[in-house]
Amino acid sequence: MRVRPSQAALAGGVALNLLLLLFYWRWGAPPPPSCRGPRAVPGVTVVLFAAESSEVADTLGTSRSFAALPVPVLLVAEVAPYPPVPLPAGVSLLRLRPALEGSPIRPELHVRTRHVAFVPDGARAVPGLLERMRDVLESGGNDGDGNGEQLRVVAAPVGTAPPRCRELRVDARGWTVSYGPAVPLGGSGTSCGALEGPSVLLLRTRDLFSLPLPLAQPAPASLFIQAAARRWRLRVLPAPFPAALRPPLSPHDAWKAADLAQNRHRRLMAELGVKREALADGADRWYGCTKTTPRCFGTVHARTPQYLLAGRWTPPCCLRALRETARHVVAVLEGSGVRYWLEGGTLLGAVRLGDIIPWDYDVDLGIYREDVGKCRWLAAAAAGTPVEDPEGFYWEKAPEGEFYRVHFSRANRLHVDLWPFYARGGTMTKDTWLGHPQDVEFPERFLRPREPLRFGGFTAMGPNSPRSFLELKFGAGAVENPEYPNPAVRRMREDGGPLGGGMGGEGVI
Ligand code: ZN
Ligand code: MG
Asked: Which ligand number lies closest to the CA of residue 270?
């Protein structure tokens, strides 16, 4: 192809322009923002979350009080307050929800000081108290437990109610946080994990922004749990910040506030990957696994559920729903005269610890095939009609072959598998084999008679001589040597053995 002089001139002009543009961008333009942010300066930035229901909030009063100290105040909100309010001097707004046409939200660029203090709505400033908290933090170093825990958060109560502080333990692999009994508060400050009631929380800015969820709400619970997961200690100072005098809430506003707080807490637990809060009085708060929610984990591939690959074990809510399903199925089978027995990994768990193996994802029962017609739900499933029983459990024939499944509910597919066996010349056999090593025939004498075993808080029937039954199925030493269902995909060794710590991943704690 020939190039005419006019075309050459045009190409040259374009190239020159590109060069100029590159030069301007590289040397002439202001530098792009650094990833590290500006160097921190001494001082404390107060972080305050703008309340969602503005009628009962004290956002402006609180921010004005701290801004007058003076310290920089960062007002954090999902979206800008509406109707717009003029912010007092020294107060800046950080919107957490990015705008479609805007830049990404980088909260760490909005805090320039070395320390940051979370202040609840309604607190009032006291000159010098934030500095004292900072000095305690900086002189604390190791908080002296000698087990690698470090003082990283200092708290001071807000208001006159005596603060109550508890031990807090995070078990990421078990999706659980546990609260201990209240720790008696000493005069010079007490070391613990989670403080009840409103409080000011101070920490180093770089510690805060090393957390995966630095600005999650509610800030206290979020910080306590993320700190405990890192073995950071909290020290509570006795000196309180005063609380603003406010008229009592109307019943409706009180209800609204409680509802908002509860929803926020549930959302936080989901973000952190917490399924169970074990309270000090022995009660539990559960997040996940109801009859109307889908199963907490997706389809299991290669007998290795997704949570195992994330270094976690079965969510405790799922274990609970599995136990409930197993108990129900066992009661129905016993009531209708179907002979069943604990099978495979379920029997292994019963013999090993009287419960479901803590990383197992289903329950397996063997049944006599000739007994299927004795149970109306099984008979319906066998006839090809899945059925929801009056207690909401869902019975169906498995699409994979000649066996049955009872789900926790139509929506939540946590399930018990029922494997129909029949005797042939003294050997128990069946028609569907899924190729698992433990999926083998066995002598019928193991079922004559069957033997009651403790399992998940109730009694269920198992084969007699369950140990030899298990060694026949899984090989010698199966009871004593725990291993994941498919060691080719993930081995227990990778997680530090049965007592080792998990590494999180599913949630963030
Ligand atoms: Zn669950
Ligand atoms: Mg199983």
From this structure: 1
